[in-house]
Write a structure and sequence with these properties.
The complex is a heterotetramer, with two copies of chain A and two copies of chain B. Chain A is built from 17 helices and 22 strands. By secondary structure, chain A is an alpha+beta fold. In chain A, the strands form six sheets. Chain A has an eight-stranded antiparallel β-sheet, sandwiched between helices. A five-stranded parallel β-sheet of chain A has the order 3-2-1-4-5. A three-stranded antiparallel β-sheet of chain A has the order 7-6-8. In chain A, helix 4 links the parallel strand 4 and strand 5. The longest helix of chain A has 18 residues. The relative contact order of chain A is 0.10. By secondary structure, chain B is mostly beta strands. In chain B, strand 7 and strand 8 form a beta hairpin. The radius of gyration of chain B is 22 Å and the shape is elongated. About 4% of the residues of chain B have low confidence. The chains are: A alpha+beta, B mainly beta. Chains in contact: A-B, A-C, A-D, B-C, C-D.
Chain lengths: 503, 169, 503, 169
């Protein structure tokens, strides 16, 4: 096993990986940009190295500086998290060249699955069902226009190099194609450093169902069942769950076996996710392989009891998978809500600023993977995910109720968040019924506005504001200090007396 | 004591008087007898008829940031920002002419020039923040009066990027 | 199912029960003493009723006032939590008389198992192995002296009416018996309102192994496997885990079946715990039935995936058990640490005061059942349990590592806690090896002192104090306000603009 | 700048000087170059040679309450409590004669009377707090000089319940 590992990421996922390392007895090196000196991941790691200015291109995407930090600190391995360099084959092959273990797939497999277009070709050959669409990338708008015509509108623009909704656009008519292509390419460039995009047929009202995979370096592959991630806004998942309401054991086994075939056909190792679209007639299509740890991995951890990050590290260290497909089972139901700093009333535009007050829920079946703390700054430079709230319960109905309570007990003041929105989605009859397709938000919540707030909570808030105006004692620091001093201080009487002994 | 607050663009008046251990509150024709306590600098407990409500609150110079039972509010003292109480229409009109980003970010592309004629729905500027692009479109027919930012600039959320002039027909 | 339930308790367990009710759609009524107006459970319930002054005898132990609160609020059921009136047959039979459902065993069974002496008689008849000792209660010290002589020193004094270590004393020689009896009787009186005590043979170096039981009102009984709770100080558990390192499947099944026999023999229903002592030769002795929800129930919840509180309420509402013994299994490993406001350097004397700063850990496999929040007061009147930290992991080794990390990330300033002590116990080679007997603390940690602190953390603390002395800005409220104002405020620009729409 | 603190009954001297973005610290013959930042009003981050340490700290009138990597400290400024710096022996001597409860609680039983002779190990008083009884025993041979509390009284942790007088032989 490694002695020391560098985490080439920030935020909640860096914190998650550092926790796993500490539990495994592995020393951790965090890297950070100048905007992140005070961030949580920097504080939690054993060592932290500043790798450059705030813009990601000069820090978290800067391969040379990250490699250098690893070498200076003698880290034997690098975990890339998700986003940034996680699916960048240049980075993983650079690690290989420098003799640093990359916690993820080998660069050849990453290269293959990362090129969404080549991956589609490979899948077609292996007999895996794929969505009709382009099988190579072009340079000219004209060629895209012709392809779109052949595929038939509406078409989907997708970044060849990555996922996460970045660069993704639905185009329903020819006259929107050019602008959408340009925007998609710019976003792809900014997110992945590669502007290539391709077109696919738009499947109507699909569910997004994906299978988590673990594959060791010796050809052993297991799937850890599915996650359904149909609830998306701006083509980005916000709510994920397992099991999916759309799968029965037969379909689950069938898709799971196809997912393993995908991994085998691409020579993929370590943790990965095979994404499918499932249409209403239970046909499923290969979408892509996410060659990384995913944001929603905790959902699978809760229903299988496996620590995916620890298994990733063990696999990277050359250990064999210590489980068989038949020994794995899904227990209960898990749901994840991503808590973003964003404004659901304003098309989910990101928000930034200082967290003025934070309360995180706790109790049975509640897990928080958080990247924030009270008084921390949420910088404008990076993905606005603050934390993830994941609940587990015996069944889906109980999990929904638990999530609603947990969201109610999550308080974040100072930046806008999607908390109230998430609560309404989970509480909606359609969600509770399990009628979840990728157009769910557009269909049911396109006009959502928190202005439908309870008039009574507004009155209570006004009372609280009046009370605080009247009664400044808590805002007056000296008075607060007095209150504290008045209370009993255990240190005043530092243990001279012992119970039942001679004093 | 009388209080005047602005919340959700509305002016709200409230009267609160200490009455023994409790507070008597009048607001919008409602009357409440409430036991109000600070649980901590940022948590207030209001008890009305054996029901307890927890209000999370932070006061900043701009106003009170509040969350209560999942609902978020921003409340301002009305005397603090007299000029702010303008009709919603007036405010929205001003916003239509002064193009600001909704959040701090970087100007990626300015799609128009000064003096250029513009139409409703035309994209004026693309701003990127947190890896997402946001197109700001015009909601008027008219011309671009003045552009204050250049491509590549970091812009703040409350400073206009450009000013428009409406066509009067 | 009930519409409304009253919780006759306070602190973390009241919070736990309120959460369960909210998830089940049941409205909650909290009761509180004048010292608890600002306590967490009062804030979380739908309604809260003040039932008297701070001393428990005038509030949480005051049957009339609690019954009256339930009647005024039209609560159909009362959950007593643990401690206070949880095992008071007078209370449960009063509930029965008033037509309020008591969430716990029927008063007849409670009466029987609550009288430790009669319970011992019943068990002996049913063929359940019991510890040699008194089979009835006496009035005079003389009679106890004679009994002690017959049993043979060392003997254990135990409260006839309750558990939790209250009233318990080990007496190793005749001349200590009288004082110990008096103290034990006073403590028993104060804790349970009944001063009866009895004597048992002291089993040397036993493990404390208990079985969680669920029994519905129709004679269906399952056990939810064991918890080992050998780590105790002052005869009170502080660390509990499941599975026990001392049990194999054969012994587990055997003890589980005996536990079910105990429940059957006593006519017990609802959730309960059958406690055993297990000696080093794998002999086990019935100790007592805890006729209530236990502090350590989360350990069982984590390894079985069952929500015991919700099942308690369902059983009380007349539902049938929806599980069979064969369908239950133990998954992974769970450990609980009780976080008390107490001073481990000073014989675990309770501490009280204000929580000046609180940080609770979060992340994979971590559960917090908490009764506190930052700035709350810990009153001197009640049991000093602040919260419980429970971890789950794939195996015991991983669970220990996770617990150590979680303890490190738990910060409580303002009252003394046993955090550092718990960490040293979990980290000790003996604990890791699973060599856990009830004399563990006395044997390995009787001289524990946190003075063995790392000199470097002391230097860091001094630097922080110097920095704060130098740099008062955070203590100066006006300056802090300035900082906040300087940051971007999302409310300043309350949504006028919408992305991709006409502004 | 020079600082003097009392921690764990020891006097500690420390010199801290701003040096660019960092602080240079001398203490006990050790020298550190540290980057010190406030993460929040109660969290301080100290970075020394790429290692970051998080110190949780609350300042009250009595001193600093601190937790650092699981270790708890209470630190007092030495000038604040000049009288407090007395030798451990002297302090412990005073404590032996002034019987205080270790925590606030209720006096359950007073086992001695004023003027009564007492021996080492003899139980003087039983105090209950949080449902636990604590016997306070004498650590001297002598007499009870004065009793300040009665059975049933609520007593504070820093006020003596009784005063003893040592027998001088």
């Amino acid at each position: 096993m490694f002695d020391k590992l560098l985490i080439a990421n920030r935020g909640e996922i860096a914190v998650r990986i550092i926790r796993a390392c500490h539990e495994m007895g592995i020393s951790t090196v965090a890297v950070y940009s100048e905007a992140d000196r005070k961030s949580l991941h920097v504080q939690m790691a054993d060592e932290s190295v500043c790798i450059g200015p705030a813009p990601a291109s000069e820090s978290y995407l800067h391969i040379d500086r990250i490699i250098q930090a690893a070498q200076n600190k003698k880290a034997q391995a690098i975990h890339p998290g998700y986003g940034f360099l996680a699916e960048n084959p240049a980075f993983s092959s650079r690690c290989e060249k420098e003799g640093i273990v990359f916690v993820g797939p080998n660069s050849k497999a990453m290269d293959l699955v990362g090129d969404k277009v080549r991956a589609r070709q490979t899948m077609e050959k292996a007999g895996v069902p794929i969505i009709p669409g382009m099988k190579c990338v072009y340079k000219k708008t004209k060629e895209y226009e012709k392809q779109a015509q052949d595929i038939g509108y509406p078409v989907m623009i997708k970044a060849s190099a990555g996922g996460g909704g970045k660069g993704m656009r639905i185009v329903s008519a020819p006259d929107q194609l050019k602008t959408a292509l340009e925007a998609g390419m710019r976003e792809a460039k900014s997110a992945f450093g590669d502007e290539s995009v391709y077109l696919e047929k738009c499947i109507q009202k699909p569910r997004h169902v994906e299978f988590q995979i673990l594959a060791d370096n010796y050809g052993n592959i297991v799937h850890l069942f599915e996650r359904e991630c149909s609830i998306q806004r701006r083509h980005q998942k916000i709510i994920e769950e397992s099991p999916s309401q759309a799968l029965d054991d037969e379909l689950r086994n069938q898709m799971g076996e196809v997912a393993k075939k995908v991994i085998q056909a691409t020579g993929y190792n370590n943790a990965g996710t095979v994404e499918f679209l499932l249409d209403k007639d239970r046909n499923f299509y290969f979408l892509e392989v996410n060659a990384r740890l995913q944001v929603e991995h905790p959902v699978t951890e809760l229903i299988t009891g496996l620590d995916i990050v620890q298994h990733q590290i063990a696999i990277a260290a050359g250990e064999k998978l210590n489980m068989e497909q038949d020994s794995l089972s899904q227990n209960g139901h898990a749901i994840e809500c991503r808590i973003y700093a964003e404004d659901p009333e304003n098309n989910f535009l990101p928000s930034s600023g200082r967290i003025l007050f934070l309360n995180e829920p706790s109790g049975p079946g509640i897990r928080i993977d958080s990247g924030i703390f009270q008084d921390c700054e949420v910088p404008i430079y990076y993905d606005p995910i603050l934390s993830k709230l994941i609940v587990w319960a015996e069944n889906r109905e109980m999990a929904c109720e638990r999530m609603i309570q947990a969201l109610d007990n999550t308080v974040i003041l100072g930046v806008k968040t999607c908390l109230a929105f998430l609560k309404e989605v989970i509480s909606s009859p359609d969600f509770k019924r399990g009628d979840t397709t990728t157009d769910f938000i557009d269909q049911h919540f396109s006009d959502w506005s928190s202005m439908k707030k309870d008039p009574f909570t507004r009155e209570l808030s006004l009372m609280a504001a009046a009370f605080l105006s009247q009664n400044q004692r808590y805002n007056d620091r000296s008075d607060e200090k007095d209150k504290r001093e008045g209370s009993f201080s255990p240190w005043k009487t530092l243990g001279r007396w012992r119970l039942g002994r001679s004093g | 004591m009388e209080y005047e607050f602005i919340v959700d663009n509305e002016l709200k008046k409230l009267n609160m008087e200490q009455q023994g251990q409790s507070h008597s509150i009048h607001m919008d024709g409602h009357e409440y007898l409430a036991d109000i306590k600070s649980l901590s600098p940022h948590i207030i407990s209001i008890s009305i008829k054996d029901r307890m409500y927890k209000i999370f609150i932070v006061r900043s110079k701009e106003g009170f940031h509040i969350q209560c039972q999942g609902d978020s509010y921003f409340i301002q003292e009305s005397d603090q920002d007299e000029g702010e109480i303008q009709s919603s229409e007036e405010k929205s009109r001003k916003d239509m002419l002064n193009i600001k980003p909704t959040m701090p970010g970087k100007v990626i592309k300015i799609q128009v020039n000064e003096k250029e004629e513009i139409k409703v729905g035309q994209t004026l500027v693309i701003v990127e923040a947190m890896k997402m692009e946001n197109e700001i479109k015009s909601s008027i027919n008219g011309t671009v009066k003045k552009i204050f930012a250049a491509e590549g600039d970091l812009v703040d959320s409350d400073k206009p990027i450009m000013e428009l002039e409406e066509k009067t027909e």
